[in-house]
Design brief:
The chain has 12 helices and 11 strands. By secondary structure, the protein is of the alpha/beta class. The strands form 2 sheets. It has a 7-stranded mixed β-sheet with strand order 3-2-1-4-5-10-11, with helices on both faces. A 4-stranded parallel β-sheet has the order 7-8-6-9, with helices on both faces. The model is unreliable at 52-87 (pLDDT under 50). It binds 6-O-phosphono-beta-D-fructofuranose (F6P). Residues 10, 192-194, 236-238, 293, 330 line the site of 6-O-phosphono-beta-D-fructofuranose.
Length: 409
C-alpha cells in the first residue's frame, strides 16, 4: 500500500509528530510512505515533473530532508521551492523515507505546509486530486486537520469511484490503474489548537496552545501585580471557548468570556464589575479578564477586548491594558503530550488504513479516557456541529456576520 499524509487547515503543534509517526509506521509495516505538501492544494497541484536524479545509496527515495539532519546539500529554505538538498519546485506529492522525518516530533507548526485550497472545494479540483494520486499509485490518505478538512476527506472518499470512472472515460488512466484504485482509504486525525471536536477528549495542539497561554498569563500576572493593573487577555477560539476556559482555570482569571455561553440575561457589564470590585475589596492587586476571540453577548454581538477594557477603566477606574496573544499561541515546540498522543494516533491511523474495506466507515482517530480510539468520522463531525457548540449553526452564522460584515455562508 502507498500511504500519503497531509496536514490541512490552521497549523497546530503536534502535526509534525503525526507525519513522523505515519511515515515511520507505514514503512515499518511494509508500505510506501508519501507526504503531500501544502495540504489539499498539493493534491490538486500534483507533480509537474518527476525527479531527475536519485539520492545515492538510498533505496527508499528520500526527498525531504530535515534541515538539521540533512546531508549537507542545503540550498534555500523558506521559499517553498527547496526544503533542503533537492528542489521540490512543482512537486507536491513526494515519497519520503525514514530519515526524512527524524526529530520531527519536536518541531512546531507543520513542516510539510498547509494551505486553504479553493480548488479542492470543487468537484473538478477533487477529480484532479484523484488523478494526481492515481498517477503516483497512492490509495490511502491520512489527513490531519480540523472538522472542515476532515469532512472534505470524507466527501473525497465517497466521490472517489465517480472520479475513477470519469478519468477512465477520459482515457487518462489505464484499466490497470482503474483496477488498482477502486476505493480510497482515508483516516482523519484532529489537528486544532481549539479542542473543538466531539468524540475525542483532546485535539492535537490544544495542550501546547494552552500551555503557551498559561506562560503568557503568568508573565502578565507579575507585571499586573506590580502596577495593580487590570489586563484583558484575548485568546484564540473562534467557535470554541476551551482555551479561554482552561486558561482561566489554570491561571486564575477574574472573568471569562466564551462563545458557547454568552453572558446571561441582564447586564454583563454590571455583573463583571461587581465581581471584580469584590475581588479588589479583599485585597487583590491585579485583575485578569480572558476573552475568547469568538466571544459573543446574548444578542450574538461580539464582545471585544477593547470594549471590556473601556468598561473596566470607566466604571472601576482600573488602569487597564489589552494583550492579544494571537499566533504566539499556535506556534512553537509541542508539549510532550502533543508528541506522544499524535505518535500513538499515527500508528492507529496506519493500522486503520490497512484494515479498511469499502464497507468500513471513514474513521477519525481520537483519544478517550486516555485511550487512542477510532470513531466514525462523520458522526464526530455531526456531533461537533450540533451539540459540540452551544450556539446553533444559525446563531453562529448571525454572530459571524455581526463580527465580520463580509462573512459569507
Ligand atoms: O485553528 C483555529 C484557530 O486557531 C482559531 O481559534 C483562530 O480564530 C484561527 O485559527 C485563526 O486562523 P488564521 O491563522 O487563519 O488567522
Amino acid at each position: 500500500m502507498k500511504i500519503a499524509v497531509l496536514t490541512s487547515g490552521g497549523d497546530s503543534a503536534g502535526m509534525n509528530a503525526v507525519v513522523r509517526s505515519v511515515v515511520k509506521t507505514a514503512i515499518a509495516k511494509g508500505c510506501e510512505a508519501w507526504v503531500v505538501r501544502e495540504g489539499y492544494e498539493g493534491l490538486v497541484r500534483g507533480n509537474a515533473h518527476q525527479p531527475t536524479e536519485g539520492r545515492p545509496g538510498k533505496e527508499d527515495a528520500s526527498f525531504i530532508y530535515n534541515l538539521r539532519f540533512g546531508d549537507g546539500e542545503l540550498l534555500k529554505d523558506g521559499t517553498g521551492d527547496y526544503i533542503s538538498g533537492r528542489s521540490l519546485k512543482g512537486r507536491y506529492i513526494v515519497r519520503v523515507g525514514w530519515d526524512d522525518v527524524r526529530g520531527w516530533f519536536g518541531e512546531g507548526g507543520t513542516l510539510i505546509g498547509t494551505a486553504r485550497s479553493v480548488a479542492f472545494r470543487t468537484p473538478e479540483g477533487r477529480q484532479t486530486a484523484a488523478y494526481n494520486m492515481i498517477k503516483e499509485g497512492i490509495d490511502a490518505l491520512v489527513i490531519c486537520g480540523g472538522d472542515g478538512s476532515l469532512t472534505g476527506a470524507d466527501v473525497f472518499r465517497s466521490e472517489w469511484p465517480k472520479h475513477v470512472e470519469a478519468l477512465k472515460a477520459a482515457g487518462k488512466i489505464t484499466d490497470e490503474q482503474v483496477n488498482n484504485h477502486q476505493h480510497l482509504r482515508i483516516v482523519g486525525l484532529v489537528g486544532s489548537i481549539d479542542n473543538d471536536m466531539s468524540m475525542t477528549d483532546l485535539t492535537i495542539g490544544a495542550v501546547t496552545a494552552l500551555h503557551r497561554i498559561c506562560e503568557s498569563i503568568d508573565n502578565i500576572n507579575s507585571t499586573a501585580v506590580s502596577h495593580s493593573r487590570a489586563f484583558v487577555v484575548e485568546v484564540m477560539g473562534r467557535h470554541c471557548g476551551w482555551l479561554a476556559l482552561m486558561a482561566g482555570a489554570s491561571c486564575g482569571a477574574d472573568f471569562i468570556f466564551i462563545p458557547e455561553d454568552p453572558p446571561a440575561e441582564g447586564n454583563w457589564e454590571d455583573d463583571m464589575c461587581k465581581r471584580i470590585q469584590s475581588h479588589r475589596e479583599i485585597g487583590q492587586r491585579k485583575t485578569i479578564v480572558i476573552v475568547a476571540e469568538g466571544a459573543i453577548d446574548k444578542d450574538l454581538k461580539p464582545i471585544h477586548a477593547d470594549y471590556v477594557k473601556d468598561v473596566l477603566t470607566d466604571r472601576l477606574g482600573l488602569d487597564t491594558r489589552v494583550t492579544t496573544l494571537g499566533h504566539t499561541q499556535r506556534g512553537g515546540a509541542p508539549a510532550a503530550y502533543d508528541r506522544i498522543m499524535p505518535t500513538l494516533q499515527g500508528i492507529e491511523a496506519v493500522e486503520a488504513l490497512l484494515e479498511a474495506t469499502p464497507e468500513t466507515p471513514s474513521y477519525m482517530v481520537g483519544i478517550s479516557e486516555n485511550k487512542v480510539k477510532r470513531v466514525p468520522l462523520m458522526e464526530a463531525v455531526a456531533l461537533t456541529r450540533s451539540v459540540g457548540t452551544a450556539i446553533s449553526e444559525k446563531n453562529f452564522k448571525k454572530a459571524m456576520s455581526l463580527r465580520d460584515p463580509e462573512f459569507a455562508e
